[in-house]
Amino acid sequence: MMSSEGYEIDAFLSSLKDRLSSATKNISENAENFNSIKEQANKIEKDLEDIETSFSSLNKWDKSVKVMFKMIDRIADDIKNLTAPTSSSNGAQSSMIIKKLNDIAREIGNIKIESQDFPRLPLTRKAIENGNESTEEVKKWQKLDSEEDIMASPAMADMQSIYDNLEPQLQICFLCLSIFPENSIIRKRSLIYWWIGEDLVGDKEVERIGEDCFMKLCKSGLIEPIYAEHGRNPLGCRLHPWVRSMAISIAKETMFFDFDSDGKPISGPSIFPRHACVATTEERRVEKVDLEPDPSELRLLFNIDIHCLECNEEEFKKLTRMEILQLGRWISAPKHHIEVANPNFLDHLGLLKRLRYLGLQGVSRITNLPPSINQLSELRILDLRACHNLEKLPSGIAYLKKLTHLDVSECYLLEYMPEGLGSLLDLQFLNGFVVSNLKGHKACKLSELTKLTKLLKLSISLNVETKDADAELEAVGRILKLKTLTITWEEGLALSRKGKDRDNEKSKKPEPRSFFEKAGKKLTRKPTMTQEAKPLSKISLLLPPYLTKLDLRCFPQQEAPELKKTEQKESLKKLYFRGGRLVSLSEIEKGGAVSEVEIVRLRFLKNLKITRPELKEMFPRLKYDEIFNCGEETTSGGDKASTSNSNAIP
After folding, report:
1. Same domain membership, residue 135 and residue 105
2. Of 399, 403, 401, 467, whose CA–CA distance to 431 is shortest?
3. Which of the residue ranges 75-89, 93-107, 194-208 has the most confident prediction, judged by mean pLDDT?
């Protein structure tokens, strides 16, 4: 046991790693829970390396950190005794070792947060506890004339006070926003993915915890929520320029990120614990991502505003400690186009063994992912949304056992999902699942997803002429934990193979704007249903027992589907119809699943005719309805419902 006072950080961490390594070596490979013990021990070793880097520039430890390390010290001795050669080996012993390792992992997690904590600044005013009041304080800044006035203003002191009183976890989440350009609108989804990748939002229900962190920051007044038009929940946020200045100041002081004199993020020196490389430029031209001086030390690479990026393959191979690789679009505007000039560097993705978040949203010229992706055993987030040239997903995705989020929505050339997705038992969010009607492909079926006991959100895309669509959709009702379901019916893509190959050949030169226009032409849709086509059978949906939100888009029939409940309970609270041929909602009550619905949204339904009294009769617990761009008679019987947000994304 080490003494509680006067020991060096390096010596203690070295001793701790040696004891844990020695203990795990003494455990037989045939012992019960051996793989779990080994995996947890490896995670602890990695976390200790991170802590060692974080504390390397500090002269002394905080008192609370010393207490946590002393506790770890005692637990490590217990593990050493349990694994001594003279001790017996049985199931109870293995369970005790797992418990002790989990205790160490929990304390190390607390230390990691503490190691990134930030010094408290003197308070000039009492901390504001009410989020609404703090938001009002921001308005005072508009009356100030200079930066010096602002930095000395009571409003600025209040913002600092609010930050100081945040939990350490929220402080780190907030500082992530410091790298984004002034007045830019940041997608909530991009932030949550980053936080999950940084391991800031826990191991269970990371989506819900990430949402909670975002809303807490909104309520604090430090970030300004941005809403979709007619939306009630924020889809993004932005920082007031002077809150951003405060965030930059704190980020530099705490070595969270480095910035130049103009507040532009730059790649920090090696003493920065994140070893971040931030890609940014002011030019719309091919820009090489600078990974020097030592790519092997980089933990994070974030593309801020490079529209056409190039990455050296040999340097990319050295990113062996990379954990966050965000090359795609984080901004809310879909016109923000990104293209890779040399997508071949992605062939080496398998070398990034520590990667937890891979973000390629909206990146052009990526037609497939390399087979080596199956080696990314730590990957949690794979964001491929709006990769318009993506044609195929590798079967190796089934090996990403820690994956919690997979987003392939708006990948219009993707024709099927690979088999094996049902083995991703940690998956919580699956966006863009394609129900395939192709023969000769090993396509994943919806029935395979019934194995995913943690899946909370699912969006599905299927063709209106897909065979056995009813049987496919019936399987959704057996995804027991599902809370949010989106289904989009498509009517085919006007795309010939020959034309696709020809366009790909033309797009080899890095011309982002012209290439984007070509890609847009390839994605035009054509109707495949004609008067001679075989009529679709009546659509009915079996709802999962805990489903709270159902969003049906481009519904292909005139009568609403029959919604059936799987158990004697009604959990559905939100029902949305967006686009399609819907004329009547009269059939929707028959399945007995809508009696508890509180929110109904009807958008772009030009043939729908319904009065508000009828809507209220169908949904007796209705609290809010939105009717937008629907038939002329739809709003008769009551005023048109709408929401208005001054901070709206069109």
Report:
1. no
2. 403
3. 194-208
